[in-house]
Amino acid sequence: MVDILENQEFNATNLLSFRGEVKQADLENIGISMEEYITKAGAERIGNTITATFSIASDSIDIELLMPVNSIIQSTDIYTFKHQFKIVNAVVAKYKGHPSGLNEVCNQLNQYIIDKKMQPITSGYNVTRKLDLLNPKNTEVDVFVGINPNIL
């Protein structure tokens, strides 16, 4: 089930970010490494990871992972600490269902943007609201895309 809403906003604070081009097989290791760094820095992860995919090649993916943490930590040469992350004037697809259906949700959201002649200014950011490992069809994900507010 997908609901698409306009003029939405997403705001989060205290996030550790990784942005880079990696092999899909290495994605889990990057998440584990981020969590280890968060713990080593004396902080705790306080929510689900936010993801954005910028491009996909045959053997790699250009992705951003954002992990919310409970305190300010130092950036490194690999990770960037973001005090605030905000998307305004967004179109959001609110999805409840099995994670395998997320690709179709993104296709529907992109078609909505095209049909409404909107101009996206961000990639789609996947914000997991509910993750149910025992019953994956109860997963809830919001996909935010920032839209240019100008009418051209």
Secondary structure elements and pairings:
Elements: E1 2-22, H1 27-40, E2 50-56, E3 61-68, E4 80-96, H2 102-115, E5 125-130, E6 140-146
Antiparallel strand pairs: 1-3, 1-4, 2-3, 2-5, 4-6, 5-6
Tell me what the structure shows.
With 152 residues, the protein is α+β, with helices and mostly antiparallel strands. It folds into two domains: 2-10 and 85-146, no CATH class; 12-84. Helix content is 18%, strand content 43%. The chain has helices at residues 27-40, 102-115, and strands spanning 2-22, 50-56, 61-68, 80-96, 125-130, 140-146. Strand 2 (50-56) and strand 3 (61-68) form a beta hairpin.
Measured between the Cα atoms of the first and last residue, the distance is 32 Å
Q: How confident overall, as mean pLDDT?
A: 93
Radius of gyration: 16 Å
Strand portion: 35-45%
Helix run count: 2
Summarize the structure.
The protein has helices spanning 27-40, 102-115, and strands at 2-22, 50-56, 61-68, 80-96, 125-130, 140-146.
Question: Which properties best describe this structure?
Answer:
152 residues; alpha+beta; 2 domains; 2 helices; 6 strands; 18% helix
